[in-house]
Amino acid sequence: MESFQLLLEGFSTALTPVNLLYALVGVTLGTLVGVLPGIGPAMTVALLLPITFTVPPASAFIMFAGIYYGGMYGGSTTSILLNTPGESSSMITALEGNKMARRGRAAQALATAAIGSFVAGTIATALLVVAAPLVVDFAISFGPEDYFALAILAFTAISSVLSRSMVRGLASLGLGLVIGLVGIDEQTGQARLTLGIDQLLDGIDVVVVAVGLFALGEALYVASRLRHATPEVVPVGAAWMGRSDWGRSWKPWLRGTAFGFPFGALPGGGAEIPTFLSYATEKKLAKGVAKEEYGKGAIEGVAGPEAANNASAAGTLVPLLTLGLPTSATAAIMLAAFQQYGLQPGPQLFDHNPALVWGMIASLFIGNAMLLVLNLPLAPLWARVLRIPRPYLYAGIVMFAALGVYALKSSIVDLVVLFVLGLLGYAMRRFGLPIAPAVIGMILGPMAEIQLRRALAIGAGDVTVLVKSPIAATLLALAALALLTPLFRRLWARRHVEAVTPGSRVE
């Protein structure tokens, strides 16, 4: 009941004319940038992060939530019309969505994606309202060793789940931890890795890291493989659905929501697994016409995964807001936004800044409704945006990223660091290193170091203090499991191959 009252107070904050305007600007910008080819929600949020710098905190996070959800909506448009998913979680939507578009059903595919996203986002946000206070009550009992163990779990889970190779994931994490060490050590006052540059004594701004690795790195990578031909966009009219489409979509929307929210809240859960599970489930449950259309453009294959994708987005906000733990690349950049305002998500945030937190949560309901109104009638407009020539598009991204970063402190050093990190982001993509572990390592690394030092100080240097707490011991055990699971899979696969090989020789 208390949560419901706080949510009503959040609506009183979010429904002011100024904040409604910021929400509208956020969802429009998020959709506009997110709809562009190859630009997913993480890159959208990173690219638009600098523009929130001069906005009051409550308004900034209302706009930021709109950018986040708008980027999620925009990614489905690119997947359906161009077969170019902005990120891995949109790949499943592209499987059936693009085939529907090529069969002349682009309007229906865009409509079920938009309405499914609205349904899933609304239900998942309601679950966030219920779950967040419960997690906060639990997190209040956390000690330094528990927070350190939580960071270790995030490091291992993100590194092993979000990358094709655990070694590459851990290598990316190591790069992020090194970037996080730059600056003055808070406890000893010693400068670390500053190369004698005074401007680096305060460390590298998280905004510069996010924009450099995500936006600039992606722009350079795409430019290196650029084809000058304008992408072929499937014609689309106003998004609409017939009675049959509604009947085939509403159950996949609900099932996708049930898959997406819990996975989004888990460290390393992400949106890839629930979207795949939703697709596989709908394919298994398909009957009649739906079964015949699977692989050729079944509407269930768009409705379920897109709902799972957006529900997982709301799920990521549970550990982010209550524990300060990002479980995805986009959540890591949102954490950077909080730090930009000197705020640290966690149990204290709900006590010290309730208007901001609940105003942001309330704005998710409002932003969802705005996105539905924007996306259904404006689908043809977003399709025209996709015709922007790629060279102009990515040149604009580089310029916008540089202007945004320079506006933070008017520092030439920040621009140099931005382009160095952009080259690093390009190299990481070129050699298959995931970006998310680096950003999460950079953001959570300093927090993990501080909590480790505090725990060891409390334990008078006794290392066993790190496992004496039941919570810490459980989290560290889960982290070890996340590290060892890929190894066990490889050993099991090798034994399976060895068991099959003798039989094939007998033949």
Give a nutshell description of this structure.
This is Putative tricarboxylic transport membrane protein. The chain is an all-alpha fold and 507 residues long. It is 76% helix and 1% strand.
Question: Could you characterize what this model shows?
Answer:
- The chain has 507 residues and is mostly helical.
- It has one domain.
- It is built from 21 helices and two strands.
- It has helices at 2-14, 17-34, 41-48, 57-82, 91-139, 144-161, 166-181, 206-224, 243-265, 272-285, 289-293, 300-323, 329-340, 347-352, 354-375, 379-385, 390-409, 412-430, 436-458, 465-468, 470-506, and strands at 183-184, 191-192.
- Strands 1-2 form a two-stranded antiparallel sheet.
- Strand 1 (183-184) and strand 2 form a beta hairpin.
- Helix 3 crosses helix 8, helix 5 packs across helix 9 and helix 6 (144-161) runs parallel beside helix 21 (470-506).
- It is globular.
- The mean pLDDT is 81.
